[in-house]
Amino acid sequence: MGCMSNKTTPLSKSQWDAIDKRILRADEDRWISSRYAPAEFRNTLVALYALAYELARVRLVVSEEGLGLIRFQWWRDAISEIEAGKVREHDVARALMEEVMAGRLKTRALQNLVDGYQTAFEEDDRDKEPEAWLALTAANVLAPIHDWGEEIREVAPFFAASRRSDSKAYGPIMPPAPKPIRPAIAHFRLRKHYIEGRNPNPVQKRLSVLQAIRTGKV
User: Fold this and answer.
1) Which InterPro entries does UniProt cross-reference here (predicted)?
2) How far, in Å, CA of 40 to CA of 172, rounded?
């Protein structure tokens, strides 16, 4: 997937734009929410979601469990190398390197994300994908102290299941989320569309997320 490099040259704007567009295509819901993050954290969320995309799609691109485990280990090693000041020649690895070195992402949180997706893959159970951990990590980027961790853990699985059409359950009704973390979780509001069997178009998604940003009701 990529060789080792000691290069620390920052990604160019066009390279960041390419990753950003990848997330728009692969995970529009989270991408829309991330647009409301402060400018200095937008790339952080994009890098985080890009890693999640690489991990989530393992189940789609491998035909044997052993091959999938190799991919997870590749990312686990890449993150360990970032912690040691080295980076692999992969645009997402380099993006993560920048955000870790800037102190906006923690390698332990990234390793936990790998562990969560690997567990879901090995057990062939998408309910075990680390949706809550991904949202918590994003929220902690925006506000390290927000006192909304339990709420995120409760609602995240319902959003994920409804988006996959695996459940029609709306889940718990939450109090308004703290304003600083809304760009990390505003897309949870889209579960209303998904449980009703609707696939909202881009305009509907943007309006729904905007409402969540304004009110905190996800």
Assistant:
1) Isoprenoid_synthase_dom_sf (IPR008949), Squ/phyt_synthse (IPR002060)
2) 32
- pLDDT tens digit string along 108-138? 999 999 999 999 999 999 999 999 999 999 9
Answer yes or no: are the C-beta atoms of 49 and 31 closer than 8 Å. yes
The residue behind tokens 């009703």 is: 196
Locate the domains of the chain by residue range. 13-215
This prediction has a pTM of 0.95
Residues 76/65, Cβ–Cβ less than 8 Å: no
**In the chain, which residue ranges form alpha helices assigned H by DSSP?**
13-26, 28-34, 39-56, 58-61, 65-83, 91-101, 107-122, 131-142, 149-163, 182-185, 191-195, 202-215
Does residue 191 contact residue 156 with C-beta atoms inside 8 Å?
no
* Rama region for 216: left / alpha / beta (φ>0; ψ in -120 to 50; rest): left
- Residue 171 is classified by DSSP as -
Q: What pLDDT shows up at residue 2?
A: 54
